[in-house]
Design brief:
Elements: H1 2-17, E1 22-24, H2 31-36, E2 44-48, E3 51-58, E4 72-75, E5 81-86, E6 95-105, E7 111-113, E8 117-120, E9 122-125, E10 130-136, E11 139-148, E12 153-155, E13 161-167, H3 178-184, H4 188-199, H5 205-215
Parallel strand pairs: 1-12, 3-4, 3-13
Antiparallel strand pairs: 2-3, 4-5, 5-10, 6-7, 6-8, 6-11, 9-10, 11-12, 11-13
């Protein structure tokens, strides 16, 4: 009898320790924080309060990957480029985890969507602030059921946060952007000559020598 009572008491205590997070409604991206901390102006656009679009720029500065700039693409290996993207809501100080769904564009008629998976967010240190976030590639993503504030709160299941990341256009292995021109302090005329030389890579060596003589006379 005593054993049954102790077992009942243990089960009751265990159930009391398991708490259900409170549901938070009307969460949205904190637009002001995103817009005021981007590395390059006019990178981020909001379709609505829960939908964000980022045109990410390539980072040309050395990074130890301990500090990031919001909106830049970082090369982590020879073929892997990621954007350390912060998840900032108006309803929470900290976002711990979310259900993540990756949307991969297919044909014009069909799109292939991944299954939603639970992902833990990573703590990122940016130059102006610290925030939890995700390493994301170019693509479209959906976040839902996000655990907030020491996991005591959760976003309502009907709220879907949409994220779309686009990489800026590149030429071959060299990424050419307005930000690049500014960082390298290259004049427009010099930049145009450099761009032209890249595009004549397929010409014969003799023609390259003639062109080089003309450019530097």
């Amino acid at each position: 009898m005593i054993i049954v009572f102790l077992l009942f008491l243990y089960i009751y205590t265990l159930n009391c320790q398991i708490t259900t997070p409170n549901i938070i409604y009307n969460c949205s991206f904190l637009n002001k924080t995103y817009l005021s901390n981007t590395a390059v102006s006019d990178q981020i656009h909001f379709n609505n309060y829960t939908s964000i679009n980022l045109i990410a720029s390539y980072s040309f500065l050395y990074s130890s990957f301990s500090t990031f700039e919001l909106g830049l693409i970082y090369q982590f290996s020879s073929s892997n480029f990621f954007v350390p993207f912060p998840i900032i809501f108006n309803c929470a100080n900290i976002v711990h985890s979310c259900q993540l769904k990756t949307i991969t564009a297919g044909t014009k008629i069909i799109s292939r969507d991944s299954e939603s998976i639970n992902v833990q967010l990573t703590s990122f240190k940016y130059t102006k602030f610290n925030q939890m976030g995700l390493y994301l590639k170019q693509g479209r993503y959906q976040l839902s059921n996000c655990l907030l504030n020491n996991q005591t709160q959760i976003t309502d299941s009907q709220t879907i946060f949409n994220i779309e990341i686009q990489y800026e256009k590149s030429v071959g292995k060299i990424k050419i952007t307005n930000a690049c021109r500014h960082c390298l302090h290259v004049s427009n005329s010099t930049f145009d000559m450099f761009f032209f030389l890249i595009n004549i890579k397929g010409l014969k060596k003799t023609k390259k020598r003639v062109l080089s003589n003309r450019l530097f006379v």
